[in-house]
């Protein structure tokens, strides 16, 4: 296999920014322990809600409510996530793109409504910093 083809394959895999467990995925036997652990974390933390890799990197693993402030961080999970995607259990989605050269700002506040509480996945402080940064670029 030529190095160009390998680079194309790496770029294609890295182009996905968001993931979501397929609600209708058939049950597939998983042999590797790390893959089982990641799937259990996805089931517990996100279920069928979309998520991104940076949430898995956080100390709370994507949800302070579910995992506590430091109880869910995932490490060395790229291979396991790829395995889940290849098995059809998790779907990978590319980032949304806009017209080249245009200004784009995205602020996300994901609200998760649970039976006993409501959870905001982004902090107010990080949103305030992003908003100030975006306004500085426009001025």
Strand content: 5-15%
Number of DSSP strand runs: 5
The pLDDT mean sits at 76
Tally of discrete structural domains: 2
CATH architecture of the largest domain: Orthogonal Bundle
Full CATH superfamily name of the largest domain: Winged helix-like DNA-binding domain superfamily/Winged helix DNA-binding domain
- Most strands sheet: 3 strands, antiparallel
In DSSP terms (H or I, runs of 4 or more residues), the helix count works out at 6
Low-confidence spans: pLDDT under 50, at least 5 residues?
A: 1-13
Instruction: Write down the secondary-structure element order.
Output: HEHEHHHEEEH
Stated plainly, the CATH topology of the largest domain is called Arc Repressor Mutant, subunit A
Radius of gyration: 17 Å
Overview of the molecule:
42% of the residues lie in helices and 12% in strands. It is of the alpha+beta class and 139 residues long. The chain folds into two domains: 1-96, Arc Repressor Mutant, subunit A; 98-139, no CATH class. A three-stranded antiparallel β-sheet has the order 2-1-3. A two-stranded antiparallel ribbon has the order 4-5. A hairpin with a 4-residue loop joins strand 4 (111-113) and strand 5 (118-120). Helix 2 packs across helix 5. The radius of gyration is 17 Å and the shape is globular. The model is unreliable at 1-13 (pLDDT under 50).
């Amino acid at each position: 296999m030529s190095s160009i083809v390998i680079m194309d394959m790496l770029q294609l895999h890295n182009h996905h920014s968001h993931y979501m467990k397929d609600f209708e995925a058939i049950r597939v036997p998983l042999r590797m322990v790390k893959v089982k652990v990641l799937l259990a974390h996805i089931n517990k933390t996100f279920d069928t809600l979309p998520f991104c890799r940076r949430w898995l990197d956080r100390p709370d693993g994507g949800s302070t409510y579910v995992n506590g402030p430091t109880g869910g961080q995932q490490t060395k999970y790229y291979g396991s996530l790829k395995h889940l995607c290849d098995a059809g259990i998790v779907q990978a989605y590319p980032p949304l793109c806009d017209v080249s050269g245009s200004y784009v700002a995205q602020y996300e506040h994901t609200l998760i409504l649970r039976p006993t509480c409501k959870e905001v996945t982004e902090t107010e402080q990080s949103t305030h910093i992003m908003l100030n940064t975006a306004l500085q670029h426009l001025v």
